[in-house]
């Protein structure tokens, strides 16, 4: 729920004329995910991406083989890859596991 609330605030700032650009893109597999990231890698100054340990997705399946920095997650790793030549900063967020 917090993600949706945060996105609502970001979208509100976009509408208010803040220097924030928010977009959603639809991809169907890892190849499209990779191509999309390559196409936008140098259009922005900052990427905020989520990371969830152990979660498998059709959108990133196969990218694990190329991963260099597991702690960044698959999307963060791809953006930080030398092959991509991305000059933007990448902020990787992960929800804290519940402590018992």
From TrEMBL:
Q: Does the keyword Transport apply?
A: yes
Q: Which domain of life is it from?
A: Eukaryota
Ordered alphabetically, the record's keywords are: Ion transport, Potassium, Potassium transport, Transport
Q: Give one GO biological process term.
A: potassium ion transport
Q: Does the keyword Transport apply?
A: yes
Q: Which InterPro entries match?
A: CPA2_transporter
| PANTHER family noted in UniProt | CATION/H + ANTIPORTER, CATION_H(+) ANTIPORTER 4
Q: By what name is this protein known?
A: Cation/H(+) antiporter 4
* Native species: Cardamine amara subsp. amara
């Amino acid at each position: 729920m917090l993600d949706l609330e945060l996105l609502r605030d970001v979208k509100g700032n976009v509408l208010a004329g803040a220097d924030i650009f928010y977009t959603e893109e639809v991809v169907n597999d890892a190849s499209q995910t990779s191509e999309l990231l390559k196409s936008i890698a140098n259009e922005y100054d900052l990427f905020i991406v989520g990371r969830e340990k152990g979660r498998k997705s059709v959108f990133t399946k196969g990218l694990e083989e190329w991963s260099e920095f597991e702690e960044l997650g698959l999307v963060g790793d791809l953006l930080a890859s030398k092959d991509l030549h991305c000059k933007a900063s990448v902020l990787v967020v992960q929800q804290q596991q519940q402590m018992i």
